[in-house]
From TrEMBL:
<feature type="compositionally biased region" description="Basic residues">
    <location>
        <begin position="1"/>
        <end position="12"/>
    </location>
</feature>
<comment type="similarity">
    <text>Belongs to the bacterial ribosomal protein bTHX family.</text>
</comment>
<keyword id="KW-0689">Ribosomal protein</keyword>
<keyword id="KW-0687">Ribonucleoprotein</keyword>
<dbReference type="GO" id="GO:1990904">
    <property type="term" value="C:ribonucleoprotein complex"/>
</dbReference>
<dbReference type="GO" id="GO:0005840">
    <property type="term" value="C:ribosome"/>
</dbReference>
<feature type="region of interest" description="Disordered">
    <location>
        <begin position="1"/>
        <end position="58"/>
    </location>
</feature>
<dbReference type="InterPro" id="IPR030826">
    <property type="entry name" value="Ribosomal_bTHX/bTHXc/bTHXm"/>
</dbReference>
<feature type="compositionally biased region" description="Low complexity">
    <location>
        <begin position="26"/>
        <end position="51"/>
    </location>
</feature>
<dbReference type="Pfam" id="PF17070">
    <property type="entry name" value="Thx"/>
</dbReference>
<dbReference type="InterPro" id="IPR031414">
    <property type="entry name" value="Ribosomal_bTHX"/>
</dbReference>
<protein>
    <submittedName>
        <fullName>30S ribosomal protein THX</fullName>
    </submittedName>
</protein>
Length: 58
C-alpha cells in the first residue's frame, strides 16, 4: 500500500484518478472536517455607572 497501489487514497492521488477511496466531491462532511461550533463572544461587562459631579451652590 502506497503510491503505486491504485486502491488506496495515496495511490489515487499519485496516479491522478478518482474512485471510492478518493471521491471528487465529498458527499457529507466527516467529523474530522467539521469546524467546531462558533464560540460565543465573551459577554462585555457593562461600563461602570458614572455618578454626576456634585454641584456647587453659589
Amino acid at each position: 500500500m502506497g503510491k503505486g497501489d491504485r486502491k488506496t487514497r495515496r495511490g489515487k492521488i499519485s496516479s491522478a484518478s478518482y474512485g471510492n477511496s478518493r471521491p471528487k466531491s465529498a458527499k457529507a462532511p466527516t467529523a474530522a472536517v467539521k469546524k467546531p461550533a462558533a464560540a460565543k463572544p465573551a459577554a462585555k461587562k457593562a461600563a461602570p455607572v458614572k455618578k454626576p459631579a456634585a454641584k456647587k451652590e453659589g
